[in-house]
Amino acid sequence: MPIDDPAGILLADKPSGPTSHDLVDRVRRRFRFKRVGHCGTLDPQATGLLVLVIGRATKLSERLMGDDKEYEGTLRLGVTTTSQDADGKILAEQPVPPLAPERIEEVFSMFRGDLLQTPPMVSAKKIAGVPLYKLARKGQEVERKPRMIHIFRLEILRTELPEVDFRLLCTKGTYVRTLCHDLGEKFGCGGHLSRLRRTASGKFRVEKAATLETIEAWTRQQLEQNLLDPLSLNLPP
Questions:
Q1: What is the domain-level CATH number for residue 44?
Q2: Do β-strands 69-77 and 204-205 pair in parallel, antiparallel, or remain unpaired?
Q3: How many separate domains does the chain show?
Q4: Facing residues of 16 across strands?
Q5: In the predicted model, what is the mean pLDDT of residues 38-64?
Q6: pLDDT (tens digit, 9 = 90+) per residue, 107-124?
């Protein structure tokens, strides 16, 4: 007799390499679940918090996907790439000018608050039902409408040129790759995102997440013991 899926939220610490869908599929296959979803895509190279919803909790996916996100990342100045991150092909390399801390802070301050951001071609956003990355693979570039995002916080954590580490709190749908690309343009030397880790999504933090290796080593009972009950979280309607 088939066993029903449990209903709950699982916090996973995604490693670099697999896609968000890969991680969902591995959890589904490992525990033979029928319904598993996630609440906000991470690029393959990115690590950190991926909120998984299982069973009846998949109904919460859209609501939780709308939560604000927190990241820590590294901007690499002087190199622009096709994907705006380290996975893309290098388009141009330029020398990084001497940048005083005051100048770096001045440029970063331009990217706080409301911003219009144009989605990158290498992204899952769909135009006429086709993901942009599929068009990009064919060498096609199409017009994308800028959309409004909000940067609540953009802090500089470390500067060791050509790298700048930062912490970011932003609304859903923010492309951190594009933010780094745009920062590089403002500095006049180009740039890309070389490292990204999601540290929080809404009220959930990565410190409470289990690694994929740990999750795959669990028994079904252990997994169910680590699920969060949506009813106990006082989630907004």
A1: 3.30.2350.10
A2: unpaired
A3: 2
A4: none
A5: 93
A6: 999 999 999 998 876 656
